[in-house]
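## retry 2 of 3
previous attempt timed out at serialization; input unchanged, resubmitting
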Amino acid sequence: MERIKLSNIIKYYGDRKIFEISDLVVQDKQKIGIVGKNGIGKSTFLNIISRDIKPDSGNIKINGKISYIRQLDDFGTNRKISGGEKMLQTINLLLQENPDILLADEPSSNLDIYNIEYVTKKFKEFNGTLLLISHDRNILDEVCNYIIEIENGEIIEYKGNYSLYKKQKNYKIERKKFEYSQYIKEKNRLEHAIIASKNATKSIRKAPKRMGNSEARLHKRESTEIKEKLEGHTKAIETRLSHLEKKEKPLPDYNIYFVTPESSKIKSKNIISCDDFSLEVSHKQLLMNTKIYVLSNRKTALLGKNGIGKTTLIKEILGKNSTFSINPQAKIGYFSQDLSIFDENISILENVMTDSIQSETTARNVLGNLNIKDNKVYEIVRNLSGGEKVKVALVKLLVSNSNFLILDEPTNFLDIESIEGLELLIKQYAGTVLLISHDKRFVDNVCDNIIIFKDKKLVQFEGNYSEYLKYEENKVKNKGFSNDKLLLEFRLTKLDSEIALENDSAKRLLLEKEREEILLKLKNS
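## retry succeeded, writing output
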C-alpha cells in the first residue's frame, strides 16, 4: 500500500532551490532514515509531508494518519522537566496514537545512551511507516530498511540501513575517483597525440632548391597528401577530445598528520587518579567513596544517565579539586556547549591558529575533515551557525598545545558526516581524551576505555562500550564466576585479537607477556 506519494515537488528558500523531487513513493511499513548535511533541507522535507510547509510546486498524496515527533515538542506542561524527559514524553504519547505514518525529527536529541536504546526498541516495534531524521547511526542501522539522502538539491534513494547506504555511497565515491583518473589519462593522451600530429605536420619540408621541376612537383604533391592526412588525423583526435565525456574532479581527501612534541607526552600511566572521591550536589549524593583513574594517552568515555553527575565531575577536575592527583605535564583543553573559547570577531582560520602548534596546512586539513573548506575558513565566526561554531571550537582544541582534551557532548549539533570526520580526527590525535557522549557508535569507534556511573561508584573498564555491554551480559550468565576472573577472561579474548593485528614486534612481545601472565593468574585462581 502506498502511504506517501510526492510528484514534481520543488521547494525554494529565496533564490536557493532546496530540492526537487520528480517522483517518490513510500510504502506501508517502510522505515526510512533521512540523511544529509545540516541545513540541506531534511526538516523541510518532513514539514512538506506533514503539510506544515507548502512546496512551491508539485503534488502530495497521503494515505493514513500522521503523527510528528518534532524537535523538543512542548506539551504545555507546567512541570519543569528536562529536554530529554520532554522528548521521551513526546515519543510515548505519539506512539500511543497508533499512527499509520510516524515522522521523527532528531528524536534522540537530549537523550542519554540508555534512553536512546529505549527509543530504538520502540521504533523497531512500531508497526507503521516511519520517516526518521537522526544523526545517531546506531538508530539508523537498527531501525531503518531504507535511506534517503538529500544532496545538492536531489533526493537519492538507497535500499538497506545506514551501514549498507555507507557502503554504496563509498563505492560511488571510489567509482567517481576511478572514472576521473581514467578521464584525465585519456584526455592527456589525446592532447599529446594532437601536439605530436601538429608537430609532424610542421616538420614536412618544402622541396629543396636543387631539385628539378618534375621532382619538385612530385615532392610537393606527396607532401601535400601527407600534410592533408596528418591534418585529418589531428582533426579526428580533436573531435574525439571534444566528445570525451567530462568527469568532475572528486573532492580531495584530507589526510591529517598531527605534530606531537615529545615534551607534551604524558610519561606516567595515569593522567588523573584518586583513590577516594565523593560528590554531592544540592544534598544529592552522586558518588560515594569511589576510585577514579584516567589513563594517559588513551581515549576514555565517561558514561551515565542524564543528571547523574558527568558534567559536574568534569567541572571538579577542571577546578583542580585537591582530592584529584593531576599529572603536572597535563595541559587541559576543554570543550563545552557554551563555546567560549574563541573570538567571534575574527575569522575561522585566525581563531584556529591563535594557539596552534600545527602548521596552517594541517589546521586547514583538520577543518576540511569537518566540511569547513576553501574560502570558508576566512568567514568571521559570529556569522556562523551553531553547528559550524562547534566545529571551529573542536578544531581549535585539536591543533592547540593541549595534550589532554576534555570534551562534553562534542557531537551535539553535528551532522553524521561531520561526526565521522571528528571520529577520524580524535583517533589520530596522539594526546589523552576524556569525553562525554550519548552516541554509542561514536564512543565505540573512538574510545578504548570506559568509566561508567553505577550505584554511586565509578566503574572502570578497559575496552569500548559494546565490549562493556558484552562483559555485563556475560556477568549475568556466569553468576558463580567472580568479577575478577570474568575480567581476566574478557581481557584474554581481547589480547588474542590485538596480538594478531599488531605489526610492531616489540609491542607484540609485551602483549604476549601480558597474555602469559593472565593465563597464569587464571590457572592459580
